[in-house]
Amino acid sequence: MSIQSLMQKVATPYAEALLDIAQNMNIVNKITNDLSLVTDTISSSSDLQVLISNPLIGVQTKQNILNQIFAQQIDDIILKFLLVLVERRRIALLSIIIEKYLDLAYKVESTTIAEVFTSISFTEKQEQALVDKIKIMTNSENVKLLMTVDSSLIAGFTIKIGSKVIDTSLSGKLKQITTYLNVL
């Protein structure tokens, strides 16, 4: 069993428990937003990332720091959840737990996640048109776009929905032509 699959196996019960609490209290959206805030805050600070993952820093110190950072910003349920993860020495799995929670929450809400890589930023109108098209393609009630600008695409965009990839980029078309010409 690989380390990644082992970490997924350990993270899943935490994500499921958090989703269960969120559903019972009817605050799935609030919890989802708070988890996004936690992810953004931690990912934007390399010092915080090091602190959280360092096993030499004590449990109480980590809990105090998380309390100071998040006490006024997130729901008490999420804060207590973070503190439990620190106490059980599972805080290093936080990103995997959040990712698993979001996957489960989006499934419950019939939300499709579409990763979109574009050569330039989309306007809101273009994003909405893409959302509408993806809803039709996937028969989903909701679509969440994860937009990334990638200038190496030259022009166009690539959409990844689960394991399916739709590549309309100029870079992708050039690769197809190269592959075709190499076969001849």
Number of domains as seen in the coordinates: 2
* Biggest sheet record: 4 strands, mixed
Over the alpha carbons, how many angstroms does the gyration radius reach? 20 Å
Give me the CATH architecture of the largest domain, please.
Orthogonal Bundle
Work out the helicity level.
55-70%
Query: Count of DSSP E strands?
Result: 4
User: In one word, what is the shape?
Assistant: globular
Report the sheet-strand fraction: 5-15%
Short overview:
This protein has about 180 residues and is of the alpha+beta class. It contains 8 helices and 4 strands; from the N terminus they run ααααααβαβββα.
Write structural notes for this entry.
Helices cover 62% and strands 14% of the residues. The chain is of the alpha+beta class and 184 residues long. It has two domains: 3-106, Peroxidase, domain 1 (Orthogonal Bundle); 111-183. It has a four-stranded mixed beta sheet with strand order 2-1-3-4. α2 (28-43) runs antiparallel to α6 (94-108). The radius of gyration is 20 Å and the shape is globular. InterPro entries: ATP_synth_OSCP/delta_N_sf (IPR026015), ATPase_OSCP/d_CS (IPR020781), ATPase_OSCP/dsu (IPR000711). It is found in: Membrane. GO terms for molecular function: proton-transporting ATP synthase activity, rotational mechanism.
Annotate the secondary structure layout:
Blueprint: H1 3-24, H2 28-43, H3 46-53, H4 59-70, H5 76-87, H6 94-108, E1 111-118, H7 124-138, E2 142-149, E3 157-161, E4 164-167, H8 170-183
Parallel strand pairs: 1-2
Antiparallel strand pairs: 1-3, 3-4
Helix pairs in contact: 1-6, 2-6, 4-5
